[in-house]
Amino acid sequence: MAEYFQRTSDKCLSNHWTENDTNWSSFFNCCTSGSMAEISWRFAKNRLADPTYLLKANIRVTENCQVCEKITANAWHMIIECPLAKEIWGLVIAWASNIWQGRRLSLVDALCGVKENNRSDILINFLTNSAKFYIYVQLITAMKNDTHPTSLRDGYLKGIKSKILITFSWHKGMNKMDSFKDQWCIGEVLCSVNRGGELKWGGVLDL
Fold first, then answer.
1. Is 84 within 8 Å of 67 (Cβ atoms)?
2. Could you tell me the pTM of the whole model?
3. Residue 13 phi, psi dihedral angles, 5° rounding
């Protein structure tokens, strides 16, 4: 199990995971795009088109990770174990801990989704879904183009900010700022809205 997640019952997709662990609806919540949901769903079903899968289908691709080079780039390595993936998961784990006020994100939470009991759970599912999507797209693109990325962190942060900005603009135009605050401003971890109605970034998003 990846050491940077809270250990939970020794479950992971590579050995002890079963579909009963998965909260399928968490992949399709109101914050998550269809593309993000599909990547999370395919990963949980072990049907993601990683190099290992493509090679079995006799499709010629680079077998090794473009970052680690000597390690076979299966979906598990790409999304969980690659050093560039760990960069992003470090952000998500820190955000989740602050949003949940101390509870730590487990590997099962990240891979199989959190059962959504409140708005905090919905936001954390968005963050985990967006992380899986961004990591996969960037690393599979690097393999396709034979490039060697050195960091994914800044691009991921820009993507999160873009999503929040678009949602903020829509809610502001519809005069539904209370709904935006309920959805995105939990604990002011990602952002907040001041009395003047201006969006303020929280933590690492305040770049």
1. yes
2. 0.86
3. -65, -25
